[in-house]
TrEMBL record:
Gene: rps4
CDD domains: S4
Location, primary (coarse class): plastid
Protein name stated in the entry: Small ribosomal subunit protein uS4c
Organism of provenance: Lamprocapnos spectabilis
GO molecular function terms listed in the Swiss-Prot or TrEMBL record: rRNA binding; structural constituent of ribosome
UniProt-listed Pfam families: Ribosomal_S4 (PF00163), S4 (PF01479)
Entry keyword Plastid: yes
Compartment(s) of residence: Plastid
Keywords for this protein: Plastid, Ribonucleoprotein, Ribosomal protein, RNA-binding, rRNA-binding
GO terms classed as biological process: ribosomal small subunit biogenesis; translation
Gene3D superfamilies cross-referenced by the UniProt entry: Ribosomal Protein S4 Delta 41, Chain A, domain 1, RNA-binding S4 domain
Taxonomic superkingdom: Eukaryota
Domain Small ribosomal subunit protein uS4 N-terminal: residue ranges: 3-91
Basic and acidic residues bias: start-end ranges: 24-39
Length: 206
């Protein structure tokens, strides 16, 4: 299944806030045909609930189905709780780090910066959005007006927010630092997600 490129509002109306996909807020739900069918059919199935949790993760981080399954399998082989390791793997992606630093307004926007070769990691151009960042990595932009103007536009348009402690931003230098691997507290993700249900959804495929 390919990466989603359709209407973003449609997804957040169904799944709730997806800050990585768009900064827009979901509209209040009104009663309608969809809700009427759901009320008549009773409670949602366990499969449906798990599917929605998986979809939240997939659309928030902008992944294909194959990519997300790959991350779940990697997390299952690592030490620690699979759900928490999964979030750590996703949060340490280069496109997500740029988003967390405020150098891009969304993860798709960050992915575009990386694909267009505007981003350097430790002084070298990295054009792979899924590049896994490590502690002590230094993320900067090309020393060119166009690259820095793009980042400055994002920094100017976004409201300053407290960064998670594993990141440091030096906005005047267009530089971000990865201080450490993210901790076990997932509240900074900004996504209401039940990690266990995501793992359970993929349990038969892993």
């Amino acid at each position: 299944m390919s990466r989603y490129r359709g209407p973003r509002f449609k997804k957040i109306s169904r799944l709730g806030a997806l800050p990585g996909l768009t900064s827009k807020e979901p509209r209040p739900q009104k009663s309608g045909p969809g809700k009427d069918r759901q009320s008549r059919s009773g409670k949602r199935s366990q499969y449906c609930i798990r599917l929605e949790e998986k979809q939240k993760l997939r659309f928030h981080y902008g992944l294909t189905e194959r990519q997300l399954l790959k991350y779940v399998r990697l997390a299952g082989k690592a030490k620690g709780a699979t759900g928490q390791v999964l979030l750590q793997l996703l949060e340490m992606r280069l496109d997500n780090i740029l988003f967390r630093l405020g150098m891009a307004s969304t993860i798709p926007g960050a992915r575009q910066l990386v694909n267009h070769r505007h981003i350097l990691v430790n002084g070298r151009i990295v054009d792979i959005p899924s590049y896994r960042c490590k502690p002590r990595d230094i993320i900067t932009t090309k020393d060119k007006n166009k690259s820095r103007a793009l980042i400055q536009n994002y920094l100017d348009s976004s409201s300053p927010e407290e960064l998670p402690k594993h990141l440091t931003l030096h906005s005047s230098q267009y530089k971000g630092l990865v201080n450490e691997i993210i901790d076990s507290d997932s509240s900074w993700v900004g996504l209401k997600i039940n990690k266990l249900l995501v793992v359970e959804y993929y349990s038969r495929q892993t």
